[in-house]
Specification:
This protein is of the alpha/beta class. The chain has helices spanning 14-32, 39-46, 50-53, 56-72, 107-121, 147-155, 165-176, 236-245, 276-285, 296-311, 320-342, and strands at 2-3, 75-82, 87-93, 127-133, 137-144, 220-226, 249-255, 261-265, 268-272, 290-293, 312-318. The chain folds into two domains: 2-79 and 317-342, no CATH class; 83-294, 3-Layer(aba) Sandwich (Rossmann fold), CATH 3.40.50.
């Protein structure tokens, strides 16, 4: 915790003075008290337990005073708050290797089911967009709060060849920042023609921007799920730098074979290997995290974890208001106990 106005902390030196004043008043009361012939009469009149109770309201008031002085210095602390993220892009691998059944019933079906479960656990106000990628990347569904449209887009996935993880990040960024002039073609990101826009759509002018701190953009995040390594398109680390410069976190999820395996189906075979090092680097560059899911249950847990993480966020926030509220509560309790026990305020 730190303070925006630390110069006001010197006011805390008033606390010992308040304690000294209270002790002086107690001694003064003793000197001016009426002398009784029998101390037993005094004890009976005061009742049991009156000793500690007489000091509790002043102690609470002293704590309230201390909280008010701390609030005056405007303390700032890292606290957990409801997330202000408004948009999440799910970038999902639809390459041919997603047919593999090492994750039951298949990698693709497991990913689809986990993604749909993820949608149900997100707050309803959060927009979600879908980007599908294989040898190219396309927006399957623009960001929307309509969960039915999102589920329909996920169910429509069509498997293709190759894996362009970098393209997926670039198209996700272009979806989040439609006016930023992010153009995948100009980056040489596709060998299959225009990606992310139609042939007759003019290229958007590239706009200059000032890079921000990685992970500082709290209004959006990207979750990328893949089971392979990049075979075409933009370098994923170059794409990750683009995301980092815009403050967007890219959470990466690896599914399937880490060590490498030859998978065969429909008369042909292919060698697939999960490039964990690159996925970890993407997450680290953007101040996000990497998750590995070896089974369908693991994948569901990963999405559940992401859902809970994206629903709240830790951020530096001024807590003067909370301390002021605490001070007011302590003062009220102090006054209430004093009235209840002694029919007076302090």
């Amino acid at each position: 915790m730190h303070f925006l106005w630390p110069q006001f902390l010197w006011l805390l030196t008033a606390l010992p003075l308040v304690v000294g004043l209270y002790l002086w008043l107690l001694r003064r009361k003793k000197k001016t008290a009426v002398r009784y012939a029998s101390l037993s009469i005094v004890r009976e009149a005061m009742g049991r337990g009156i000793g500690w109770r007489r000091h509790l309201p002043p102690v609470l008031f002293l704590l309230a005073f201390a909280a008010m002085l701390l609030a005056a210095a405007r303390p700032v602390a890292v606290v957990t708050l409801p997330s202000t993220q408004q948009t999440i892009i799910l970038a999902m691998d639809v390459s041919g290797s997603m047919r593999a059944t090492d994750v039951q019933p298949s990698r693709l079906v497991a990913a689809q089911e986990a993604a749909k479960k993820f949608l149900t656990e997100l707050p309803r106000h959060v927009k979600v967009g879908i980007v599908a990628f294989a040898g190219s990347a396309q927006v399957a569904q623009l960001p929307t709060i309509n969960r039915e449209d999102l589920v329909t887009a996920i169910d429509r996935f069509q498997l293709q060849r190759a894996t362009a993880t970098g393209n997926a990040i670039v198209i996700s960024l272009a979806t989040l920042f439609p006016d930023a002039g992010i153009d995948l073609q100009q980056m040489g990101g596709s060998r299959f023609g225009p990606v992310g826009r139609s042939l007759d759509e003019p290229a958007k002018e590239k706009k200059a921007f000032t890079p921000v701190a990685p992970g500082s953009y709290s209004s959006a995040a990207i979750i990328m799920l893949t089971d392979g390594q990049r075979t075409t398109g933009v370098d994923p680390l170059e794409a990750a730098k683009m995301a980092a410069d815009r403050g967007v976190r890219v959470y990466t999820v690896g599914i399937g074979t880490v060590d490498g395996e030859t998978i065969g189906f429909e008369g042909w075979s292919m060698r697939v290997r999960l490039d964990e090092d690159t996925l970890k680097s993407i997450a680290n560059k953007t101040q996000a995290e990497y998750y590995y899911a070896g089974t369908s249950e693991d994948l569901k847990k990963v999405y559940q974890t992401l859902s809970s993480r994206l629903a709240v966020e830790k951020k530096e926030t001024e807590i003067s208001g909370l301390l002021s509220l605490l001070a007011a509560a302590l003062a009220l309790v102090s006054a209430g106990l004093s009235v209840l026990w002694f029919n007076r305020i302090l």
